[in-house]
Amino acid sequence: MRDTNKVFHLAIPCKELDETVSFYEKLGCKLARRYDDRVTFDFFGDQVVCHLSPDHIDEKPQMYPRHYGITFLDKEDYDQALEYAIKEELPFFSKPMIRFKGKQEEHMTFFLIDPANNLLEFKYYHDKSMVY
After folding, report:
1. Spatial separation of the C-alpha atoms in residues 46 and 48, rounded to whole Å
2. What is the CA radius of gyration of the chain?
3. Is 0.85 topped by the overall pTM?
4. Is residue 33 part of a domain?
């Protein structure tokens, strides 16, 4: 299990800071810092830094192999995130679905796409032993 004294850090490109802040705040992330060239968020307890890098945006994003997100341990948290994304009219890259139906690794998932075409996955495994 993860120690509470560790925070995962992820740096990703963004094309414009204001729209990036708007998207991540609507997602429920807290803006921690803002500079002329980047913004830092509390992303569900971890740190996501969006670096202003309009020349490095993936124009044709695909789910695999590059995306990031949250794996919820409680179904209620997954359901709440999905309801929040719908309520805030956040852009879905892939609507909610069930992957690996009927198998031990079956999980519920949906993908959002941020303003710089970064893909975010949110998922919940029915069998918690499949999280890792």
Report:
1. 7
2. 15
3. yes
4. yes
- CATH code for the domain of 47: 3.10.180.10
Helix/strand/coil for 22: helix
Q: How confident is the model at residue 1 (pLDDT cuts 50, 70, 90)?
A: low
- Give the model's pLDDT for residue 2: 62
Domain count, the chain: 1
Q: Which domain holds residue 109?
A: 9-130
| Cα–Cα dist 76/27, whole Å | 16
Q: What is the pLDDT of residue 4?
A: 72
In a domain, 1, yes or no: no
- For residues 92-105, give the mean pLDDT: 97
What was the pLDDT predicted at 45?
93
Residue 116 near residue 20, CB atoms below 8 Å: yes
Query: Does some domain include residue 79?
Result: yes
C-alpha 3/C-alpha 66 separation (Å) is: 26
The three-class DSSP label of residue 83 is helix
